[in-house]
């Protein structure tokens, strides 16, 4: 009876959403969110290479970034390509890799011991790993990094929002709600606990405008996500057991691998 009542609430929620937006609109929004998550994941994953730099420097891409509030400095647009790639690589290593004092891009490092953090491969890392595995999304073969690296968490959101977009197009109500609930839970229980703090540290310590602006963009994206997902009250009572009950066999869809190349 409980599950029947929840199903009716979710059906009403879908209908309420459709009064304001068409399925095509919702699919388009989800796809745009997925693209932004993908861009951020790529930037945080490793040093900027020639292909990504060429894409970001393109006038059309600059226009899109400007629309998102990203204002890159003159050094990014005017420096010779090889020089800029070298400078960005040095900045990436200084900010995120060390060996000296740096800003760890791992969730567990930024949480207290009570929150499951305090060191690499803390309890928070295990929880992230479980969330990803319960979703039916697989790591790319050969991946040896940690599940709570910022690029992995953002890429997980990229995959969830991609699934959501496809579910809107397929008129698959169950998958739409599963995606939205999973997105909200992962944002609330993981991403918002540490990435805003991480970004503030990057904004403070970055010497080049690129990583400073990317950190600002990341925070703006997360603020938008939090506002949007809070609009749907039926997401507020998703239990841990309900989330964990979804195994890969419960989800009739492909199992796309994480794109992480490590």
Overall description:
This protein is mainly α. It has one domain: TorD-like (Orthogonal Bundle). Helices cover 68% and strands 0% of the residues. It contains 12 helices and no strands. The N terminus and C terminus are likely disordered.
In short:
Helix content is 68%, strand content 0%. The protein has 262 residues and is mainly alpha-helical. It is globular.
- The unreliable regions are 1-6, 236-262
Mean pLDDT: 80
Q: According to CATH, what is the class?
A: Mainly Alpha
User: Mind summarizing the main beta sheet?
Assistant: none
First-residue to last-residue Cα separation: 46 Å
Total number of domains: 1
SSE arrangement:
Blueprint: H1 2-20, H2 23-45, H3 50-57, H4 59-67, H5 74-78, H6 81-97, H7 107-110, H8 123-134, H9 150-170, H10 173-205, H11 209-229, H12 240-244
Helix pairs in contact: 2-9, 9-10, 10-11
Provide key terms for this protein.
single chain; 262 residues; mainly alpha; TorD-like; disordered N terminus
